[in-house]
Amino acid sequence: MNTRTIIGLEIHVELSTKSKIFCSCSTDFGSTANSQCCPICIGMPGSLPTLNKKVVDYAVKAGLALNCNIARESKMDRKNYFYPDLVKGYQITQYDKPLCKNGFLKIGQGKNIKKIGIKRIHIEEDTGKSLHTNEDVTLLDYNRSGVPLIEIVTEPDLSSAEETKEFLESLRDILKYIGISDVKMEEGSLRCDVNINVATENGKSFSNITELKNLNSFKSVVKAIEFEENRHRLLLQEDKNTSKETRRWDDIANMTISMRSKETEDDYRYFLEPDIMNIALSEDEINKIKETLPELPRDKRERWATIFKLPEYDINILTSFLELANFFEETMSYYNSPKKLSNWIMTELLRRLKEEEMDISQLIFTPKDLAELLDLIDKGVINNFIGKKVFIEMINGEGKPKIIAEKNGWIQIEDIKVIDEVLRGILRENPQSVYDYRNGKDRAFGYLVGQSMKALKGKGNPQLINKVLKKLLEE
Length: 475
Hints:
This protein has helices spanning 53-65, 161-177, 218-237, 283-291, 297-307, 312-318, 322-332, 338-356, 367-378, 384-395, 401-407, 416-429, 431-438, 443-455, 462-474, and strands at 3-14, 69-70, 73-74, 77-80, 90-93, 100-107, 114-125, 129-132, 138-141, 148-154, 190-200, 210-215, 245-250, 255-261, 271-272, 279-280. It has 475 residues and is α+β, with helices and mostly antiparallel strands.
C-alpha cells in the first residue's frame, strides 16, 4: 500500500527574558528548587499578573523572522485543565487572537525548496516541573512556572522524519540568531510535540492523528516519527485505524507508548483572561522590532556561497551561530583567503574553545589579531607549526601574534647559511638515511626533514629546508 505521511508540529520555546511573563521572578536555569517563586507564579488567590512587554517584543521578533502577519490587537485567554504542576488549574495563553499567524519557513535547496506554513505563534506561561523519585514520591518544582513561552504551530506540511529534522534545525538556528532563546533542548528551552498520521495515495483512507508529546532531542523526533509512520501504515493495511491519542517516546524500549486519549479544544473551556488588558501594537513598534533583526541564517549562507565560494559543509558550520558567523566575517575584512580562514577556525579555534570550555564572546584577541597571525604564516615569518603555538598564547591573553613570536624566539629562520650548516650536521649524523634516499627510498627524505625541523626547534622555513636538503643530498 502506497501512503504519504502528514506531519504538523507544536513547538514550545522558552524565551530568554530575565524575568517571568507575569511577575518579576528570575528565569535562571538550574537554581535551587522553588527558590524563584512568588504569589503570582504559584497562583496564590488574589495575586494579579502583569504582562512582561519584552515577551511580546520577542514573540513579534520571532513572527517577523518567520514571515508572519503581526496582529495589531490580540488578547490573553485561560486554558483550563488539571495537572499537578499547573498551579492555578488553568494556563494563561492565547486562543483565537494570537500575536502572529500565516507565516512560513523554507527548507531544502535549489529546486527542492519547500515552504512549511507557520499557522500561528502565540505567547503563554510555562508550567512547573514534576520530579519523580525512586521512592515513588513526586516532588514539584515551581521555578519554571510562569517562565515565558512562545508556541509555534505549523501547518501539516511536513512529510517525513528528515524534513521535520531539517525544519527544526533551521528554526533553532533562526531563534538563536535573533537572540530570543538559547534553544537548548537538554534544558527544556526547546520542546516539540508532533502530530502525525498517514493517508493512502488516493486520499480515500486516513489514519487518526496521533500526538507525540514533549520530544526533547532531534534524534528522538526522528525515531518517534519513523516508528509512528510504520505503525499507522501497518494498521491501514489491516483495515484498522489508530486511536486518537497522545503518546510518548520511550528511548529505552525504542517505541512510542500510549499516555491518554487526545483532548479536543472544547475540553479546555477557553475564555478571556480577565486580569490582563488586550495587547495593542502600532506600526511604529513593529517596525522598530523589525530593525533589530539580523541577517537570517539561510540568507547568510546563500550570500556566503556566492561571495566566499566556500563548500556547503564549511558554510553550515561557520553560520551555525551568529557570534561565530560575525567573527568569520569581520576577520575576512582584514584577510582575503576564505578557505584558509575557514580551515583555521574549524580546526584550531573551535577545538580550543571546546577544550577551554569557552564561548567565542570570551576570546581576548580580536578578528584583526587572527588575521595578523594568518598573514604572518602566509608571509613565512612563522611556519604553521609555530602559528599554532602562537595561537594558544593568544587565547591565554599574551598579546599580539608578532609580539608573541618575537618574545619567544619563534620567528622563522630564513638565513640560508644557518640552515645549510644545521642540515650538513643532520646528514653527518644520519648516514643510513642518506644511503636509503640515494637508493630510492623516499621516506628517508621525510625523516631527514623531520630531524632538521627538530634541530631548528620548529623555526626553519620548510620550503627552504626542502630546497637546501635536496641540494646537499645530490652533491
